[in-house]
Design brief:
With 190 residues, the chain is mainly α. It has a single domain, classed as Cobalamin adenosyltransferase-like (Hypothetical Protein Ta1238, Chain: A, Up-down Bundle), CATH 1.20.1200.10. The protein is 55% helix and 5% strand.
């Protein structure tokens, strides 16, 4: 259980922060950049949810919870030693990736194939989902960068890769099942 009764601690006043295992690192470390951008992604999902209804809102709520799981995973280095711990840390699971894939497939079944690239926009929800997509792509790049220098749960990278795809397909659904997509017209303004 998490108890937050005091928000500021002054512990980061010198440019460091504590990771989930208690170790301290610079606030600009690759690990903090990765999970910080996952947090940014979550904030953009909160904005999208202001425009979502029904199953789309339910799915976005599940994604927000997954993103907290992902942040908890990324803020805790040292996967191998943790598996033996009495209370192992929360790690993202392949089943969460599988759920995203199933949802992408279900949404994609109602869409016509694309014949052009889609410009971010259309409905308010679609525009917000495109913002979610681009921020999640940045989180993915930073997590992949982190995985080049430190051990990272492979499911974390897979999840972020599928997540940006989920946001793209969901943006098309939010645009009247793709009928109101704003399509790129190459060289239209020459």
């Amino acid at each position: 259980m998490v108890v937050l009764n005091k928000i500021y601690t002054r512990g980061g006043d010198k440019g460091e922060t504590a990771l989930g295992d208690g170790s301290r690192v610079a606030k600009h470390s690759a690990r903090v950049n990765a999970y910080g951008t996952v947090d940014e992604t979550n904030a953009t999902v909160g904005l999208a949810r202001l425009h979502a209804k029904g199953s789309m809102d339910t799915q976005l709520a599940a994604i927000q919870n997954d993103l907290f799981d992902l942040g908890a995973d990324l803020c805790r280095p040292g996967r191998d030693k943790d598996e033996q711990a009495e209370y192992p840390p929360l790690r993202l699971a392949d089943s969460q990736v599988d759920r995203l894939e199933a949802e992408i497939d279900a949404m994609n079944d109602v869409l016509e194939p694309l014949r052009s690239f889609v410009l971010p926009g259309g409905s308010a929800l679609a525009a917000h989902l495109h913002l979610c997509r681009t921020v999640s792509r940045r989180a993915e790049r930073l997590t992949v960068e982190l995985s080049g220098v430190e051990d990272v749960n492979p499911a974390a990278v897979k999840y972020l890769n599928r997540l940006s795809d989920w946001f793209f397909v969901a943006s098309r659904v939010a645009n009247n099942d793709g009928k109101d997509d704003v399509l790129w017209v190459p060289g239209a303004n020459r």
